[in-house]
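If you are new to this repository, start here. Below is one unmodified record pulled from the training split, so you can see the exact layout before writing a loader.
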Amino acid sequence: MSLVNLAHCCSHLQNASMARLGLTSIPSTNLHHTLMLQLQRSGYVSSVTVGGPTPPPPSHLNPILDPADPEYQSQSNNESIITQANIASRRLWVGLKYWNNEPVLQKIGLVSKPTRRVWMGFREIEALAEGDTSGYVKGLRGIGESMYVTTDRGLLEVRECVEKRTGGMILCRVNGV
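And here is the target side for that same chain:
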């Protein structure tokens, strides 16, 4: 897991959001894909699509279609087949959301840095979810604020970690509208 690439991804999403872009792309890695799906589930981005260097057709950006759906697979073209020749050019195409002419994704940044990874147990994460400071990490205070944690059960939001009573490494904090 490269936190340097994740830092670039976070700053790119924040810059694209402030520039009012509707669609942007980031390198396709398992960590980026999982984080983007979590951001989509939390309502910060509208769609996440795996594609090549060119943007996918608008029909593939429909957030309702499931990649396992036969209709979705019938619309796919040869570019969606992953081979050794095109693996380096794979991109995640992320549709950004806006509400009242303001970006939903206001700010996104790393909590764990490449030189200082922040690991917390269940009790510390519970304190963060309640809004208390744990270590040097400030708790969740805003209404549209989320924090994402990588655990042995996958990438989870802080509130999900409290429900599942698990700890892990704090990856990033997201502030929304």
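Two things worth knowing about this chain: The beta strands are 23-27, 45-51, 91-96, 98-99, 102-103, 105-110, 119-120, 145-151, 154-157, 168-176. The two ends are 29 Å apart (CA to CA).
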